[in-house]
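Hi all, a correction to my earlier message: I attached the wrong file for Slipin family protein. Here's the right sequence:
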Amino acid sequence: MLNRTEKTEREGRARRVAGIEKYNSNVDRRTSQNGPLVFAVFIAVTVFACVLGLGFALGGKLDVWWLFGALAAAWAATMAVHIAMEWEKVVVFRLGKFSRVKGPGLYFTIPFIEQTALKADQRIMVTGFGAEETLTSDLVPINVDAVLFWMVWDAKKACLEVENYYNSVSLAAQTALRDAIGRASVSEVAIRRNQLDQELQEVIEERTSVWGITVLSVEIRDIVIPAELQEVMSAEAQAEREKNARMVLAEVEKDISAMLVDAANVYEENELAVRLRTMHLLYESVKGSGGTVVIPSAYSEGFSDAALDKAIDGLKSGK
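and the right structure:
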């Protein structure tokens, strides 16, 4: 039986994985096919109508042969005339060998001889990926979610060097993330998020550059640490802060005690300084309270005119 904490963590991980898969599945890579599809239908209908019109003009009627000929001509026209959207690069093969890269705009191929092998979308792509229960260098399982921004800059390499460049980029990013987490401790992963982003970008870029793909940036979205470890780390941080506070307080007490020792040495060598300090403290007490202070007879002598004149003479003579 799983306790409530473990059950909650598993449900959270399941939701994160489902969110990443849903995010990746919602990437609409069919957008670039709407325009070419409409254009292909237009070409097919136009050629079909022209061939039927030509057959009717020549023979005065339409038969089955003209109908089959119109269908064949329309099919051949759709295989020969194409358009590529502004963000697309099209890789064309001739008899199974690489021929050229076309697009955007109108381009032509030889029916049955040349084929469109790949339509590469050169817009910035966004891929969500993560690492579930990956062990850090100090053997702590953590969950990390990240986002990868990348684009295809060489359609030929994306077609020839890798089978499915989109899935390959996602798998390369996941592998790089797991390797980076395994080399760092849990505290380093939590604190050095920017450094981890930069490290992942460099590693993924090195792996995907041979596929004609460049990585623009990698961003860590979330780092989930087990609840038990969060409590331990919080207690450790609090203890560290309390330790620093006590050290600062000890340094302050040390400075204060040194100053008090210096003051005591001065008072010990000069009795007049003690009396003046006593008078100053009494004055501050009366001034702050606004009332009266009862001065013992032993201290009252210090306030007489003779004592004040003596104190002034002592200050002037430097005694």
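Sorry for the mix-up. Strands lie at 81-84, 88-94, 97-102, 105-108, 114-121, 125-135, 141-152, 213-224.
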